[in-house]
Each structure stands twice: as C-alpha cells, then as structure tokens.
C-alpha cells in the first residue's frame, strides 16, 4: 500500500492551471488529484491512529493486563508524531521498553516527515521562491525524478543519524558516570532522538531537572534541538556556502532570529527567576546561568525542562508563551508560527510605524505579498489558539495562565507544561490533542494554501472600501 | 490659542505629493506641516494635562485640603478624555460635584473629539474611499471650506445633545421614583453623557448593579452606548438613506457585526454564568436575561457593569476580553480594533481557508490592500497589549486573567475591570494610563499611517523571498 503510494507519487507542476497538486495514480490509469496539504493531513492522521493502537497494546505499558485508555493513547501518539512532548502519563514509569520504543519510533517518523515535507514544500513552490534558493536546491538535489527524491530523503536521514548518534554517545558517556552503561546508552539515545526531533520527552519524572547545572547535558541537549529546529534548508545552505555572508536571506534571518530570541530568552528568565526560591533562587550562580539558558532556549520548541515550569513567575511563563508561539524555523522539527514569519511581522510593524514604503531586511526587500501571508499566519494562529483555549475554560477548572500555557505549548508543539496535563478532563485531553494536530499541520497547510495560486473567480464583485481601525 | 489654532487650520489635499498633512498657518505666513496623527496626539495630551491639573485642585475632591495625587489624577483624566471609564477612585464618593463635572466635561470633549476626528479622517482620505461614501459626505457637508467644517461639527454636537438629553430625561424619570428629582436629574444627565460617549463612569460604587433587572435602565443605557458606538458616519448614512439595502458597505458591515456580536455576547454570558451564584446564578429568569444582555453588549466598549466582573467565570472573562479587543465601530466614541477590522480579518481567514481569490462581503469585493491593513491593525494591537501586559507582570503580583483583562479593557477604552484598578501599584497605574492613551490613539494613528501614501524610497533593494509558516 505505502509502496504503491510512493511508487505512483508524481510531483507535477500544475501551478499554472490550478495551484499545486500532487497526482496520485490509481491502478486503472485514473488520477486522483490531492493537494499536498491533504496528503499531509491524511498521512499524519493514519500514523497517529497506528501509534494509538500500538500504545494501547498491553505489552506497551507496565500495568499488566490492560493497556492505556484510548484518550490517553491518542494523546500520547499525537504528542509523539507531532513531536510535541506533552504527556498525560510519565514516560519512564508507565511505558515498557517496547512502549518507549514505539514512542521513539513515532517521534523519529514524525520528525523526518516534517523535515522532508518542509523541503518538498520549498521545492514544489520553487517557482515562487527566489531564484537563488531554487538553484541551490535544484543543483544539489534533482527533485524531479524519483531518484532525486530518494537522494534527498536519504540525505536527510543520513544527517539526522550522524547528529543523533553523536549526541547520544556524548550523553551516554556523561551518564555512564552515574548509571549502568547499558542504561546510560539507552538514556543517551532516547534523549538524543527526543532532542534532535524537538520532541522533549524524557525518561525521568521531572524531565532533566536532575542535571540543571550540568554543562554537558545542557550543551548536548540544547545543541541537538537547536540544530533540529533551525531547519534542513538552513543546514544545507550553511553546509554548502561555508560563509555567513553568502547565505540566503532565509538562512540569515532564521539564524539571526534564533540567536536573538535565545539570548533575550535567557536574560528574561534569569531576571524573572533570580529571586524565585521555587525555581533558581537558591541555586549557585553557575546553576542559575545554566537553568536560565536552558529554559530561555527550550521554548522554541523542544519542551524539555530543568526547572519546575509551574513554579516560575508569571513574567517567565508569559514570556515563555510568547517564545512558544513564535517557535522554530520553517522546514524543521520545531513548531510555532516560525521565527521567519515573526521577523517579517516585526519588520513590517516597524516599517508601518516609520511610514516607509518597503520592508527591508539585510538590504533585501520583502514583498508586501509575503508580509500579508506572514500576518495571515500570525492571525490564524491566534484564532486557533483562542478557540481551543476558550473551550478549555469550559471543560477545566484551572487558572488562565496554566490553561493558556498548555494550549500554546500544544500549538507550538513545544511540550512544556505547568504540570496540568495529566489532570486534564478527557474533553480537555481531546482538545489539547486537537491543538497539537492543528498546531503541527495548521501553519504548514496554511502556508500551502497561501502559497498556491488562488482560483480565479469567474464572477468578480465590484470593490468597495470599508473604514477600519 | 485654541481659537487661533482653529482659525488657521486648513485641511489641504497634499495626498498626491507626500501623504496626508494638515497645514497649520503661523502668523508670518509660514506653514508648519503636521500629520493629522501628530495633531491628534498633541491635542489629546494637552487636554489630558489640563484635566489632570483640574482634578488635582482641592475643590475637585471631598477630602479637604489636599487634592488627588498626580498619578491618580493623570489616570482619571486620561480615562475620561479617552472615554475609557477605568477608575482608581470611586467617582461618586471621591469627587465633588465640581470634580464630577470636570470628568463629565473631559468625557464629552473626548467623545466629540473622536467622533469628529473619525469623520475628518473619512473625508481627508476621501480620495481613497469609495466614490459612494465620498459623494455622500460631500453632498451633505461642504468640508472644504471653514463653514463646512463648522457645519459638520455643529451637526455632530446637535445630534449628540438630542440623544443625550433624551436619554437623560428617560433615566431621570425612572430614577425619580427612588430618589429626589434633583438627584435623579443629575444622575440621568451624568449616566446619559457617560453612556453615549462610551465612557462607562457611574456614580454608584458598584456602578449599575442596583438596576441589574430593570428594563428601563438596561434599555436606555445600552441604546445610548450602542448608538454612540456605531459611529457618526453610520448614523448619517442611515439618516439619509432610510433603507437598509441602500446603505454603504461600511454601514452594513458595522451594523451587522454589532448585531451578531451583541447576540453572541449575550448568549455566551448567559450560558457561562447561568449557575454562577456569585453573579446571576441566584437571580430570576428575567434578571438573568437582562444581566446577560447588558454584560454581553457592554464590552464593546461602554464599560458599565450590572454584575461583578471579578466573580464571573473564566469563560465569561475570556470572551469579554475578546469582545473588548474587537471594540466598536470606526469614527465612534468606542475603541478596540473596530468591528469592521475584525469582520475583514475573519472574512479573509475564511477566504484563505477555502482557497478563494477574493474576499467578498455583501457581494462587494474587499481589496487585499485593505485586508493587509486590517491584519496590520490586529497584529499591532496584539503587540501593544502584550508589551504592556508583560510589563505589568513585573510591577503587579496578581493572576494573569485579572491583569490581562485590565490591559485589554484599557486598550479597548472599555473600562470594565475585575476590581484591581485601585489596587495597582503606581507603576501599574502609569502602565494602564499609557495603555489607555495608546489604545485610544494608536489604532487611529495607525490607520492614518497605513492609509496615507507611503514615501517612495529613493533606493529600493532587490526583493528576496523567505520561507514562512
Ligand atoms: K516539542
Ligand atoms: K469605555
């Protein structure tokens, strides 16, 4: 089935006629036209469904005789496939090794899926992307033949494996000092895969809090999810150009925004938590720094934690929500509206305030069309988040900051939580499940919808203005 | 000073050269070019400053010998001029009749100011507004002569007075049954002016809670602020067309959205508060309905209350925040991003989701340019609100829902509060003061900036795409 799916998957340029479509050839020579967004949604829904069934198997969980409830299994599978990392049960103590490997498998497939799709999107929409990026991708990957597609996917898998194995070994060596080497190795691989794919699942009940001031764990984990979250296109660009100046505008903006947000995040957390005894108030200067760095960097969008999110100050929680909303880079394992979208919105805002005619970034002009699309993504994200959050206020009896934090964490596929995930009602769990799915696929499909050529209406109405603002 | 200002105020069409400017003639024949937005900001700042001084006078407050502190007086003056209605002191017991009249005066000047400015904006930008609306306004008001301006302003003042006096008399008659007629008359006028200008100041400590189930008070007050909040252009349009079909698109959208949001607001409040004993849970069916109607309609953006906002369910509070954010119509006494802006955003969102090419409302096409502007207004509002709210989390030790509610209420110049206004720290009060000022002037000036022709840059950079979403 999947074999046939891949075999007959042809990417064709129908952009000129009616948007971007992928033709799926059926046996009798008939074609079903599927929008890539539709393929995406169906594919991930199927994967989540399979994962749910696997996690419900008795061998997946420790409590003998009965597996996970459907709602919990659906939640965990969605969280894994969407590389979110929110958990209604404790991963380390609830799941057997089999269950944990199922989770890891779902995370890896999910992560690859999103990286690959990001690239495909980049290429399918090549005509609408700058010549520079297009040539870059066309040169390195011949995407218009099946071998080209296989080559791209293998390259993504290869780079992923290299990075994950390196990370896993570093972590395993570090952990071998305090646990048996088999356990250290397993821990290393689990956390490395979880980190690179920006999933944020851990094996300890308090995630990574044990190693709050440990430089190796801090640096290894953050490096893994920052590389995973920067996106394959940027990795490829840096790999080939080997010079910051020659990078594409996309890579420059993604790298700079990642740097700025990480530095600002660290500073804000350090300032906001400095005297908070429930988090870093009583730690040494060294541990304070590492904890702030980790918690300032992690919201986009890895979801690990080394301090108790529920006890952070409201300021930290609110700023973390903003960072989770912004998220990682396009075509990466991270979620959110994406750093590039955010950058364009901020630059556009500044351009309007200063009454300039062009949005310029790095001496390059951003079309108003792209600005419009970025604004649309931002606004639609807010509409989705508001809807789910508003419904949660009916199903749950919890304070606003905790509910909104959980919703934005699910939307941004971050996985940080103030600790309420397991206490949610079944309706609440389903709402958060839906939010993870929308949050992971929504912006992507939204981007597809925005980037594909619009159907020209046969009948156009006369234009009329409305007074706004 | 003000006389000379008005005498030499010429509105000139400089749109073709460099945006919209108002020429302010100085004595020696020199001209200072001021952007209308600049005049707006300066004018209101001066009015607020004068109001602050007046409210600090010992005769303004009951406590003898000392007037209001500067921060409190500034807060109250800003709240009055921006017709917000948030109060750090109890209006009825803190201010003397003189102080109350100062407040009422500031409210009325503020209200007139915003209605007049709304119209001016409509006309100054006439060239960019549909021919239909332009002819409508040009026919009825010759705005290009001083007499035309005077005629417009007098008409606004005339209609305002008629509506306010009618409302005041109805309320006075109703209240004369339970208080001395002089007090009833004063109460009638105070609440009528406060309602028509969408200010929301009341004279009782619990605002209008005494009359929670009273049909006369409910209908009179809500009618006053709905008429005030629909905008002068719509009133004029309805007045002259006398037929719903012939109305301009702007009027149709403003009226329909107002109706929809009022009905939805009422239903949501009724559902969310039905069993809440702290608000309407123990009231009769009749009182339940009136309270829900009042509290569902009032967030856009009158700011009165008949039930305790602080004891409403989180669902009601969150939905009220959304309504406060949306606000009233353009060119009215109400604030927020405006119903028309919101309508365009929602229609655009739907258009993108369904992959259509045009945003159509009432068989009229909305230009993507206008959509872009609406999205910009929405996003910039969110940026402003987030900034002030985030700073408040540092200065105040209060739960998120209360702080965010206060911030959005200030932004939308609504004046509803969960009851924390008086308990804010001086920094908190100053932040809310700033939010009221930005909330009142921001969207207007933003609209100016967005609508005026952009300076063409001499040097344009090459365009480059970025991957978003
Ligand atoms: K995550
Ligand atoms: K108000």
Report on this model:
- Chains A, B: It is found in: Cell membrane.
- Chains A, B: It is a multi-pass membrane protein.
- Chains A, B: The chain crosses the membrane at residues 39-62, 68-89, 101-125, 152-172, 184-203, 215-239, 251-271, 322-353, 374-394, 430-451.
- Chains A, B: GO terms for molecular function: potassium:chloride symporter activity.
- Chains A, B: InterPro entries: Cat_transpt, TrkH.
- Two copies of one chain form a homodimer.
- With 469 residues, chain A is mostly helical.
- Chain A folds into two domains: 1-34, no CATH class; 35-451, no CATH class.
- Helix content of chain A is 62%, strand content 4%.
- The first copy, chain A, has 18 helices and five strands.
- Chain A has helices at 2-7, 15-18, 36-56, 70-81, 91-94, 97-124, 131-140, 146-175, 181-196, 215-230, 232-241, 249-273, 285-297, 314-326, 339-353, 368-395, 400-411, 426-451, and strands at residues 9-12, 21-25, 31-34, 359-361, 364-366.
- In chain A, the strands form two sheets. The first copy, chain A, has a three-stranded antiparallel β-sheet.
- In chain A, β4 and β5 (364-366) form a beta hairpin.
- In chain A, α12 runs antiparallel to α14.
- Chain A is globular and about 70 Å long.
- Residues 1-27 and 125-145 of chain A have low confidence and may be disordered.
- One potassium ion binds at residues 83-85, 198-200, 301-303, 413-415 of chain A.
């Amino acid at each position: 089935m999947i074999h046939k799916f891949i075999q007959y998957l042809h990417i064709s340029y129908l952009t000129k006629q009616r948007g971007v479509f992928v033709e799926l050839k059926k046996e009798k020579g008939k074609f079903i036209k599927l929008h890539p967004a539709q393929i995406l949604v169906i594919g991930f829904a199927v994967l989540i469904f399979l994962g749910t069934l696997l996690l419900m198997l008795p061998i997946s969980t420790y409590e003998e005789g009965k597996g996970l409830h459907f709602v919990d299994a659906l939640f965990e599978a969605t969280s894994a496939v969407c590389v979110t990392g929110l958990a209604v049960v404790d991963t380390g103590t609830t799941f057997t090794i089999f269950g944990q490997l199922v989770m890891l498998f779902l995370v890896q497939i999910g992560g690859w899926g999103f990286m690959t799709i990001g690239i495909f999107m980049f290429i399918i929409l090549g005509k609408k992307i700058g010549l520079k990026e297009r040539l870059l991708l066309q040169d390195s990957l011949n995407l218009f033949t099946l071998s080209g597609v296989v080559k791209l996917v293998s390259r993504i898998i290869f780079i992923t494996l290299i990075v994950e194995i390196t990370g896993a070994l570093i972590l395993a060596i570090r952990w071998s000092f305090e646990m048996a080497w088999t356990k250290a190795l397993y821990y290393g691989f689990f956390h490395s895969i979880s980190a690179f794919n920006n999933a944020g699942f851990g094996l300890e009940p308090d995630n990574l809090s044990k190693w709050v001031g440990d430089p190796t764990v801090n640096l290894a984990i953050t490096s893994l999810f920052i590389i995973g979250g920067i996106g394959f296109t940027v990795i490829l660009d840096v790999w080939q150009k080997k010079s910051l100046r020659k990078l594409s505008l996309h890579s420059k903006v993604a790298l700079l925004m990642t740097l700025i947000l990480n530095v600002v995040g660290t500073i804000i957390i350090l300032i906001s938590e400095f005297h908070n005894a429930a988090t870093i108030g009583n730690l040494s200067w060294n541990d304070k720094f590492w904890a702030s760095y980790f918690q300032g960097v992690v919201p986009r969008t890895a979801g690990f934690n080394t301090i108790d999110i529920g006890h952070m100050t409201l300021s930290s929680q609110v700023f973390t929500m903003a960072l989770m909303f912004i998220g990682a880079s396009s075509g990466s394992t991270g979620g959110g509206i994406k750093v590039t979208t955010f950058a364009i919105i901020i630059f556009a805002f500044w351009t309007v305030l200063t009454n300039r005619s062009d949005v310029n970034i790095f001496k390059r002009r951003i079309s108003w069309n792209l600005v419009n699309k970025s604004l649309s993504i931002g606004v639609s994200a807010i509409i989705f988040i508001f809807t789910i959050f508003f419904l949660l206020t009916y199903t749950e009896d919890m304070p606003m900051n905790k509910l909104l934090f959980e919703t934005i964490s699910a939307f941004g596929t971050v996985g940080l939580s103030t600790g309420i995930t397991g206490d949610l009602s079944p309706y609440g769990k389903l709402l958060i499940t839906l939010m993870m799915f929308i949050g992971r696929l929504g912006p992507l499909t939204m981007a597809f919808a925005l980037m594909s050529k619009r159907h020209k209406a046969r009948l156009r109405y006369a234009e009329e203005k409305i007074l706004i603002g």
